[in-house]
Amino acid sequence: MRRCSSHPLLHAAILMSRLLSAVALVAGATTTHAQEWPTHPVKVVVPYGPGGIADVFGRITADRLTKVFGKPFVVESRGGAGGAIGTEYVVRSPPDGYTLYFAGGGQFSVVPQMQKLPYDPIKDLAPVSMVTVNGMAFAVNNDLPVQSIREFIDYARANPGKINYGATGLGASSHLAPAAFAARERLDLVVVPYTATPPSIVALINGTIQLFFGNVSDIVGSVQAGKVRLLAFSTEKRLPQFPDIPTVSETVPKFVMTGWNGYFAPAGTPRPIIDRLAEAIAAVCRDPEVIS
Amino acid sequence: MSGLSVDAVGSTPEELAAAIEADLPIYRAAVEAAGLMRK
Checking CA distances to A270, which of A57, A141, A148, B31 falls within 20 to 30 Å? Predict the structure, then answer.
């Protein structure tokens, strides 16, 4: 007589039961891990050099997350190769919630088109939460005889190759936005590369370049000081802070370009940790002190 | 952040994933226009 436990169907049932128990154990362990997380400091990798806008926002939010979770969230700048060095470091890190990534959209939509990468940011990083959104400002030298996007287009068409724009890095928003704008309107604009933002703004003020079309935060001070002329924003709608400044798309339909920064984690990070982080970050973004 | 003309916005992971998807064609065209597309 065969033993019951050796019956193939029963054997399969036992195996299935053990498998389900194992899955339940792992799920239970993951839930417990997620509930206890974080038990030690959390690293927030910013794939750029220190002092940039992503670094600043990364530190503001990391400081808030430290207070929310009661463990240090420590920003680590790992710049280089257009952000690829820091990004690869994160995708190779354990997906345990102790390594996070704070970066701009360019790491997903720009860098992979410019470089062959040893990782796929979309597959290898799990989105957590967006933190900032910013438009691009279309600002010109005060002596340029244009007061609107329409006039700029007409002037540029009449003066091919005579309008220079400053790009604060290969593939930076100040490089891509004017290039996309010129392609859309079939304009012959000349790119002038700079290694950083400040010299490009100085060049716009003194007339070495005639156009800066990049992050609002880079130019807003010079606009407010009357040193350059702001013609438009690349946002979908007018900005509440500048209700009299039109959008580019009011003249060039559907021309909308915005930038953002957000938090990610290595793919495979337990979903409960990601959800806890996303909720905390949303709360941080509603904090009046952070908003101001 | 508004002092820097940057809006603070929280999102769900799904909303962030959707933002990436929406960006891809826009920035692909921009990278191409800038002559930066890798060979």
Answer: A57
